[in-house]
Design brief:
Length: 208
């Protein structure tokens, strides 16, 4: 099997919405009984993206739930469900992305990940999804106390695993995260579809 060109010797993936589908609406659509406007208000004003991001930065879900439950006691059940039923927000892996991963592994390409993820939920996901244990290295934001697109979290990956930015192809569904990787000298691809990703990787010389 053909090897990628020397310039690109490692692939660095994001996890959420690249390998594992994630959307809190998978959980809350049922809890709000199809009342989309009420659900969107709740996600914008109670369990907000900023609140959730602090779990990705390292705050425990226990502390997150306790603090928010005090402020919004009327939403106690919904807040607690975000933690207790979190895996309903991440219902499946994208099989086609996993297949790309497996073909890269079979070709001997080193594969890493940088993911904004709660350390608790990532540990649980590793029990659900076997492929998460097959990366050559994973940088989890909550473990490091750093979040993409902060350049510091990319530097953690590079220094820990002895990687050169120019040798890395970085893949993420967030344009801000892609831009940060590109600014550090990586070749960075915005993920939207596994078929497009496979074409982009072939264009860069990988056989997938």
């Amino acid at each position: 099997m053909a090897q990628p060109p020397a310039r690109h010797t490692a692939v660095v993936f994001d996890i959420g919405n690249v390998f594992i589908e994630w959307d809190p609406r998978h959980l809350f659509a049922g809890m709000f009984d199809g009342q989309a406007r009420a659900m969107e208000w709740f996600l914008a004003n109670v369990c907000t993206p900023d609140w959730n991001r602090e779990q990705d930065r390292g705050r425990s879900w226990r502390d997150a739930v306790a603090s928010l439950r005090t402020i919004y006691p009327e939403w106690r059940e919904e807040i607690e469900s975000y933690d207790r039923r979190w895996h309903e927000t991440a219902p499946r892996a994208f099989d086609q992305t996993v297949a790309i991963f497996e073909r890269l592994k079979a070709a001997g390409v080193p594969i890493y990940a940088i993911t904004n993820f709660s350390h608790e939920k990532f540990a649980e996901c590793r029990e659900r999804f076997d492929f998460l244990g097959a990366f050559d290295g994973v940088i989890v934001s909550a473990t490091e106390g750093l979040l993409k697109p902060d350049p510091a979290i990319y530097q953690v990956l590079l220094s820990r695993y002895g990687l050169e930015p120019a040798a890395c192809v970085f893949i993420d569904d967030s344009h801000a995260n892609v831009a940060a990787a590109r600014d550090l000298g990586m070749t960075a691809l915005a993920f939207a579809d596994p078929h497009v990703l496979a074409e982009d990787l072939r264009r860069l010389g990988f056989e997938v």
